[in-house]
Amino acid sequence: MNTTAKLGGLGAVIALLLAEVPEQYAFYVALFIIACGAVTAMVPPPHAGSKWAVAYQLMTTIGLNIGWAENHFKPGQSGVRVPVQDKPAAKQAVSAAGIPVLNKKGKPEAPAP
Length: 113
Known about the structure:
Blueprint: H1 3-19, H2 23-42, H3 53-62, H4 87-96
Helix pairs in contact: 2-3
């Protein structure tokens, strides 16, 4: 399934859920969604074993930090920033050091040949 279809489906679900909110509360629901997005953009993620990790992930989801808007830093993971042209060499160096390279879902990638 491609990203456009996923986002279209997610947009439809959000629209259906918001349609169920009484009109006098729609502003507060929208404000809550915006606040969740803002908090997860400003607050660094907790470490993986923290009791706040699940709450942080929930706020990230409510704040619609998905797809291209997804936070690059996640509980229990680090991000090594390198220029795009150096990405293959960086992945190889990390793998050669015995450190698993994680994919977008946080699972180890298959080792590069």
